[in-house]
Automatic annotation (TrEMBL):
Residues 335-345 have a biased composition (Pro residues). It comes from Rugosimonospora africana. The active site is at residues 249, 267. GO terms for cellular component: extracellular region. One of its GO terms (biological process) is regulation of cell shape. Pathway: Cell wall biogenesis; peptidoglycan biosynthesis. This is L,D-TPase catalytic domain-containing protein. InterPro entries: Big_10 (IPR041280), LD-transpeptidase (IPR050979), LD_TPept_cat_dom (IPR005490), Transpep_catalytic_dom (IPR038063). The keyword Cell wall biogenesis/degradation applies. SUPFAM superfamilies: L,D-transpeptidase catalytic domain-like.
Length: 345
């Protein structure tokens, strides 16, 4: 409806029961609070307002699609309702089967992110099985987020998407971590002020740590890494940074090297006391930057959304009409899930 905005919508089913819902902020669409029933007739009364303030009302009936046959494509939203996250928290939606290119725009159209206060953001496709939303700059501390995915029943490549998701979360204080290989130090900033400096040991020359802009993906008080039946390692105060297993963690065995030499297999080694401080004060979603290791972070190896410029990130949206989208990255991003068997130390 060019030049017009939806003012109100009343939707009822065949028994005259009203369906609750809400307008999108741009007034271009009304979204039901819950999925509509399959193969059901509804009556809609829609009032729109044009640029001159003139109102008009349209009444119509429609019938929803029959329930699709076959196995659904399962989607997972990596956001927990009620949780508090760091200012770099991306909103990741994963699928257990590929989404064809000709369906991606429709998927995005059904995704809604509301932030209070409002902040500009965009979705970006990593391959065919994950789409991730980030704001133009880090979230403002205290932001309230509401995410809605109205995907249930959407036909995709002869199958259909499984269900809708909703989540509401909060962004906490601003805390960022910056590790520099040249100094062998990790600096911690809260609200852009330096609050802590810790000596570290990064990856040895033959197993360098990734350098780039990362985000804390998981936090574990204790993690058991299993390399084989005879080779296992338990570490404390661990924060996951990459999908292939780089962590910040306590490494009491390398305290003598911390601040002086790089001896790890790629992880950021801290003393037990320093690692405990990081664990007790960090949040999933806190940004972590590592500089100067000689090995750059691979796109999609974890939540790498902040390692891409805003302009390039926006090109990854299927809704950018007429824009040249970059080719899918070779590695699909990994979400917060158990690490692989082979881990760095």
């Amino acid at each position: 409806m060019p030049g017009k905005r939806i003012n109100s919508v009343t939707l009822t089913d065949a028994t005259d029961k009203r369906v609750s819902g809400a307008l999108r902020s741009d007034g271009a669409a009304w979204v039901p609070a819950q999925p509509l029933a399959y193969h059901t007739t509804y009556h809609a009364t829609v009032t729109v307002v044009d640029g001159k303030g003139t109102r008009s009302t349209v009444r119509t009936n429609f019938t929803t699609m029959p329930q699709p046959a076959g196995d659904p494509i399962v989607s997972t939203l990596d956001l927990q309702s009620g949780a508090t996250y760091g200012v770099g928290m991306p909103l990741a939606l994963r699928f257990d089967a590929p989404i064809p290119d000709d369906s991606k725009a429709e998927v995005e159209h059904r995704l809604s992110v509301t932030s209070d206060p409002p902040q500009t953001g965009v979705w970006h496709w990593y391959g065919d099985q994950q789409v991730i939303y980030r704001p133009k700059s880090y979230w403002q501390p205290g932001t309230r987020l509401a995410v809605s995915t109205k995907l249930g029943g959407m036909p995709v490549a002869g199958r259909y998407l499984d269900s809708d998701h909703t989540a509401a979360a909060t962004i906490g204080r601003k805390m960022t971590f910056r590790t520099t290989d040249a100094t062998k130090r990790m600096q911690v900033f809260q609200n852009d002020k330096l609050v802590k400096t810790f000596p570290v040991s990064l990856g040895a020359p033959e197993t360098p740590s990734s350098a780039g802009n990362m985000v804390i993906m998981t936090r574990e008080r204790s993690v058991l890494w299993v390399y084989s039946d005879d080779d296992q390692l338990e570490v404390s105060y661990a924060e996951q940074l990459t999908g292939d297993g780089e962590y910040i963690h306590a490494a009491p065995w390398s305290v003598a090297d911390q601040g002086h030499d790089d001896v790890s297999h790629g992880c950021t080694n801290l003393s037990t006391d320093d690692a405990a401080w990081v664990y007790n004060n960090s949040l999933i979603g806190d940004p972590v930057t590592v500089n100067g290791t000689g090995k750059h972070l691979q796109s999609g190896n974890g939540w790498t959304v902040w390692d891409t410029s805003w302009d390039d990130y926006a090109k990854g949206s299927a809704l950018r009409k007429g824009a040249d989208r970059p080719p899918a990255e070779g590695q699909a991003p990994t979400g917060p899930k158990p690490p692989p068997m082979r881990m760095t130390k």
